Amino acid sequence: MAKRNKNITTLNSKIKVLFLSAEVAPLAKVGGLGDVAGALPKALARLGVDIRICLPGYGLIDWIKYPAEKIINQLSVPAEDKEDKAEIIDVWLTNLPGTKIPVYLIKHDFFNSKNIYAGDRLILGDKYTRLADDLKRFVFFTRAALETAKKLNFKPDVVHANDWHTGLAADFIKTFNRQNAFFSKTKTLYTIHNLANQGITDSRNYMAEGILKADLINTVSPTYAKEILTKKYGAGLEKILKKRKTDLYGVLNGIDTDFFNPATDGFIKEKYSLKTLEKKSANKTALQKRLGLKQDKNTALVGLVTRFVRQKGIELITEKFSGLNCQFVFLGSGEKRYEESLSDLAKKYPDKFKTLIRFDEKLAHEIYAASDIFLVPSRFEPCGLTQMIAMSYGAVPLVRAIGGLADTVNHKTGFIFKKYSGAELYKTLNKALTVFYKNKALWRRLKINGLKQNFSWDKPARQYLKLYQKLNKPVKKHYLI
Ligand code: ADP
Question: Which of 73, 103, 201, 247 is the most buried (most CB within 10 A)?
Answer without folding.
Answer: 103
